[in-house]
Amino acid sequence: MKTPLEIFKAQGLLTQPAGFEAEAQAAVAMLPRRLPRKPLAELKTPDWTNDTTELIRKRFLYKGGMMMLCGPTGVGKSSFVMQLMMHLAVGRPLFDITPGRTYETGMNILLVQAENDEGDLAEMRDGVLAGCEAFSEIDRRNACSRIDVVTLTDKTREAFALELGALVNEKPLDLVVVDPAFAYLGGDSNSQKDVSHFMRELLNPLVKASNIGLVLVHHTNKPPTGKEKSAWSGLDFAYSGAGSAEWINPCRSLLALRSVGSSDVFELKAPKRGKRLGWKDAAGNLTDTRLIAHHGGEGVICWREATAQEVCEFGPGQEGRGRPRTFDPTEIIHCITANPGQNRAFYISTVCKVAAIGVTSAKEGLVTLEAQGLIVKRGDSAYRRYEVTETGLEKARETPPKFNWPERSEIGSENND
């Protein structure tokens, strides 16, 4: 039933000056609200065994909360996001980032992104699936069907919040990922005023009202160096995102990808609420840091756990000291001459074992030697063999080996493709 005021307005008996309704709405918005209040004693402690709001275990992320994922440009943040979304979509953990118990069978996710075209996204999807060997066929289908993608490139600030609100209301969702947050700010990333308005007045109320979780993908600041880098503590990394501290302050949790001096191995840190993930170091103590690496396989675009050698080379304790030892790639020439005609996997594995270096260093050594013309590849990628050139042999004669390189018969056949 219409009110008398609505009837009079419909019949044209009441008129309003232009802009009156907008001004009235603005005035109402300024009036104090009666906010719900509860005695402290009546607040309910979450039940981690049956918490329908818990998206990631131990409430690392929950519905109504925001998480930030930071990383340098070009390291693979978007592929990490794709891999994380696919695992959460089917209720599987990734690097011990474990879905809440209510979502062990999966969740519905929306990716709102601005930088990748359809081809990039499809390649990431296929590349991640190629590396998810534990996924069943049902997992693969569900991982794709439970994730929707929207490319939005022309909205910022209030317009973006309105668009996002409309998208969230179209179908039931558990989690929304925005990649990258920069694209939708519409202001100065270093301005506390601009970022606070975006995070606290636009996104935070939307997330709570819609009962969803939100992940914001964000770029990191230029990496610190020297004494500045060594002086950083765990809490300092919570503010590694580029721009104002207001980017991270409203977020309940943070994941950050950080360089450790390798092109393939990176540190995954959880400096805010990270102990809730349950990560443990070699001594069994809770930690907020672990090493992950690019998969590196042909056609695979995803991340994997770092190997024992990579942890030894780039893990905690090596910070600020560079690599634990200097490795001369010429040693690889000696390994090849002792075992001619073997495959790439054999040489990488043997060099790692004998010289006690990481897989990344061994790979980089092969690339360096090939670029210098000291070794050459024979065969295709499925049957790749290395041979030492005459220049390489001359180099080896000038540089005696530091290690005793065993022949294949002494090593066994487990390294052969």
Largest sheet: 9 strands, mixed
Number of helical segments? 15
Mean pLDDT across every amino acid position: 83
Please trace the helix and strand order, writing H or E for each element.
Answer: HHEEEHEHHEHEHHEHEEEEHHHHEEHH
Strand order across the biggest sheet?
5-4-6-7-3-8-9-10-11
- DSSP, total strands: 13
Radius of gyration (CA) equals 27 Å
- Overall 3D form: elongated
Helix content: 25-40%
Give the low-pLDDT segments.
225-236, 318-325, 411-417
Structural class category: alpha/beta
Please report the distance between the alpha carbons of the first and last residues. Answer: 78 Å
Strand content: 15-25%
Give an overview of the whole structure.
With 417 residues, this protein is an alpha/beta fold. 36% of the residues lie in helices and 16% in strands. The protein has 15 helices and 13 strands. The strands form 3 sheets. It has a 9-stranded mixed β-sheet with strand order 5-4-6-7-3-8-9-10-11, sandwiched between helices. Helix 3 packs across helix 5 (137-145) and helix 11 packs across helix 14 (390-398). The radius of gyration is 27 Å and the shape is elongated. The protein starts with a helix and ends in a 6-residue tail after the last helix. The relative contact order is 0.10.
